[in-house]
Structure formats: structure tokens, C-alpha cells
């Protein structure tokens, strides 16, 4: 039975929406889970079950590593920290908040991801098209998250989702040493979760909200 | 030879130092030892290997001869920088060690994905560190823009290698993503605000991961792109980097003329990076040699000029500024001359409209730097080891200027 492309694209789209919207102390955990679950079906249908398993393992590692890192960081008192959830620079009150801006940016990503998916062939010899949409839309939303970042958690969310999306795209393109290289990219997800959790564990450290630089 | 020993040396000493330093009193000297095992590992890995390009996706993690040489110089420069800087804290040491390991792997990566991932991890860590140390708009921009640029490099990976048979949209997309990633990493216009803004707040060892580790890795690995990419991707890559590099070089050189003493050096780096970016737009050998000479020059002077100006180090700082003046036989002269000659050979006289004023402005800026170094405020006198270390980079720079070709051959195996 062939892959149901609209269904795979729909799952990827839902994951991308979650990557764009999720906020708070556990944002990286939810991002890892959403991106992993959103990309795994597409990778399973194009590359195979081992690729999907790799993505799910990285997502699960990211989901677990964040809270564990936060707990560990609370025990380390000699290192100063910063609360990654508090905006780095306090913005003025405005009609549209950060989520609205992310949604607007995500809407622009949608046609771009669709175009890339259907017009850019993947792989060194093949001309596979139409399967890249989940990875492209999640990568695009993660990039928008990075571009509009106000907190360190936004940056960590962006890095985690970019890593998982890049790993999925690499597996789908059948690049060299597929699993090993994809594992390196997917490792960004637990690394980002550990960093965000570690910073979050030092909530009593340096206050994040500081006056804007001149 | 594999890059694994170098990466392990960086990671192990960084972790060890991060856990031990808070418990020890002589922090400054011990922190400076962190890059040395990586330098030794790089020295042991000398002996050959081709000039590698991740974009051609040949696989593996082999450190080529130029990359091994650059890892060695970067690690030594980081050592001097840490010796001269105020005592680094554990987080700073961890970030330097992580960026050192990631930049070494990026230089050795035979896969475009691993290359992009290493640069993405390094820039993201750098951005987080800058924000944690100095929470402000400028440092947040480093986290946003530099990380997004490195993410563009990872996005290019699934479309590489592109060959002549590849349909045009894919080649153009890959070339555009690579150029965007390089432009963000180099801090070119309009993506360079994170460097100028961040360098106003961040000094010394906190700037080292970018100037001494990540930037050399990106610059070296971007060199062979013109030779590796097919015509479609090459055209897009050049069409972006040539004008953007020219505009960045001109703008940074202009701003450097009016910059305050502490802000002057980052603008000189940006101006030279603009020239290097212009050089990436041509496959001429001279552009590559010139870029490597400029890169080495900055690796030699940056450990001194990244520090807060201080009368205690006025003399070596004056020498460092002289090396950047672009007067023969300084290494900056040879580097800029080789790039300009290559650009003229490739594109005719048009690039001279940007490059000649840039060179003139940088000469005036360097002279102002020499004068300002004499009038620097009195700081705490460095120890004997730091004072000795402060003279090493200018002396190495003088040797590079007097013997550019042999120096390139010995250090990087190029020429």
C-alpha cells in the first residue's frame, strides 16, 4: 500500500503548528515530541522503520533530558544562571503578542514549504518529490521561531525542531551514511532540551529582563 | 587523520575545567590550559590529507592538512586570549571548549549535514552564552540571526551534493541557502548587526568562540564551495556574496573610521570578512590564499585586540594594529592585495570601486588604533606569563608578513 501523502502532510502540519505555538518551561519537551511524532510517519514511509525509530528515540530523549537537566541544575549552586522563560528584553505593550507574530510567520512558511516539497527533487540520483512537506514546514516554523525569538526557550525550541527536521530530510533524501548523520542532527533536540533545562534550573540566578542595550 | 582525538581533547578538558575551576584559586592560568590538549592533538594529526569539502559529501571525519593547521592556530590563539582576559567562569570555559570541538568536527566533516549541525550547535551555544552573560537586544540578535544562518546551512544539506545534471531550482536553492548561512555567520549586511551590537557588550574571552573558533571553521570550509558547486548553484552563491560582501566591507570600514577605541576592532574584522566574502565569489586561487592570510592575521591579533584597551599592553597592541594597517609587508597587505587581485582578474575593475576605499579606510583606522593604544587607560598589570603571551601574536604576525608563502605552507600546508 502506498503512502497517504495528504495524511502525512497533515500530521506534519499539526506538528508544525505545535512547534510554533508551544510556550513555557516545558516547551522544548513538547516540541521534541511534536516534531518527532510529526516526522516519523513520513520517514517510515520513505526511508524505513529504522529511520523513524531514530527520530522517535531522539524525540523521547529530548523530552526526558529537559526535566532531568533542570533537576540536576538545581543541585549546582556555584554556577550562575538565567531564567530561559523570561523575555530577554521587555517589549512594549502591543496589539499582537509573540504567538500572533509566530502564527503570521508560520502562514508564510506554508506555501514556501509546499513549493519546495513539490519542485525540488531530493537525493543524489533520484527525483523524488512531494514527500518533503512535513520536514520543510517544521523546519520553516522552527526558523521563524528562531527569527522571532524573545526568550532563550524560543531559541532552544527552534534548534530542537531544526535538528529533527534536518535529520528527517536527510533520511528522506538518502544522503551518505544516512542513519549516522541523521543521528548527529537529531542529537540537537536532546542537546537543546538539556541546555534549556539547565538554564531553567538556575532560576535564582541573573535576572533575564534587563534594560535594552543602547 | 581522524578529528576524534582533537574533539575529545577539547570536550574533556573543557568539562574538567568547568567542574574544577570554581574550586581552585589560580583560575586564570588553569583556564588558559584548556585549549592546549586540543592543540597538541592537532599537532599530532599533521601529516597530510586532502583539502576537504563537506559539500561534496565524500563522507568521513578526516582532518585535512589545512584544517589541522587551522585547528592548531585557533587553539593557540584561544590560549593566549584566555591568558590575557579576566578570569573566565565555568560557563565561558564550557562554551569555548564546546565551540572548539564543534568547529574542529565541522572542519573535518565529510557530510554537509554534520558540517551544518556543528556550526548550528556552536552558534546556538554562543548566542545562549551571550544572552546569559549580557541580556540585551544585541545579544539576543546573536542568538536569533547567527543561529538562523547556521540553520540555513543544515537546510541546504539534503539538497547536496548538487551536480551538473541537477534541475535548476535545486541548485539555486542550495546555493542561496549556503550563501545565506555564510553571510549570517560572517556578519555581513544586512545580517551583521549581531556582531556590532554584541561586541559592544561582550569582550575578551566571551568573543573568542566566534572570532577564534567558529569563524575560522566557517571561512575555511566555505573556501572550496566555488570549486565544488555546479554552475547554477555557483552563480546564485556568487551573486549573493559579491554585492553583500562589498557593501559590508564598505559599511564596516566607514563605521570603523568613527568608532570608539573599544569598538574599532570588531568593525575591522567585519570589513575584512566582507573582502573574504567577495573572494568566495570567485574560484581564483589568489582569493583563497588572500582569505587564508587575512584569517591567520586576525587569529594572531584578535587575542590582543579583543581585550579591553589597557596601558599595560599598549606596546603589543600597537604592533597588532600595525599588522592590520595593510602597509607592506604586513600580512594584512598580502591578504587584501591577493583578494583584490583575484577579484580584478575575475570581474574586471568594478570591484575596485568598493575594495580600494575599504583598504584606505582600514589603513586610517589602524593608524588611529596605534595612536589610541598609546593613550589607553591604565589597567591592572598582567603577570609575566601574560606579558610574554601578549607579544607572541604580534611576533607571529610579523613573521607571517615577512614570509607569507612559507608561513602558509608550514601552518596550513597551502601554497
For the structure shown, list the relevant keywords.
heterodimer, A: 214 residues, mainly alpha, 8 helices, 0% strand, globular, B: 415 residues
Short précis:
Chain A: The chain crosses the membrane at residues 44-68, 128-148, 155-173, 179-199. The complex is a heterodimer of chains A (214) and B (415). Chain A has 214 residues and is mainly alpha-helical.
How are the SSEs placed, and which strands pair?
The complex is a heterodimer of chains A (214) and B (415).
Chain A: H1 5-21, H2 27-46, H3 49-75, H4 98-119, H5 133-147, H6 152-173, H7 178-186, H8 188-200
Chain B: H1 4-20, H2 27-32, H3 36-44, H4 65-84, H5 90-108, H6 112-133, H7 137-156, H8 168-186, H9 193-201, H10 208-222, H11 225-228, H12 231-258, H13 261-280, H14 285-305, H15 314-323, H16 331-347, H17 352-374, H18 384-402, H19 404-412
Task: Explain what this protein looks like in three dimensions.
The complex is a heterodimer of chains A (214) and B (415). By secondary structure, chain A is mostly helical. Chain A has one domain. Chain A has helices spanning 5-21, 27-46, 49-75, 98-119, 133-147, 152-173, 178-186, 188-200. In chain A, helix 1 packs antiparallel against helix 2, helix 3 (49-75) packs antiparallel against helix 6 (152-173) and helix 4 (98-119) runs antiparallel to helix 5. Chain B is built from 19 helices and no strands. The radius of gyration of chain B is 20 Å and the shape is globular. The longest helix of chain B is centred in the middle third of the chain and has 28 residues, at 231-258. Chain B has helices at 4-20, 27-32, 36-44, 65-84, 90-108, 112-133, 137-156, 168-186, 193-201, 208-222, 225-228, 231-258, 261-280, 285-305, 314-323, 331-347, 352-374, 384-402, 404-412. The chains are: A mainly alpha (214), B mainly alpha (415). Chains A and B meet through helix 5, helix 6, helix 7 and helix 8 of A and helix 6, helix 7, helix 8 and helix 9 of B.
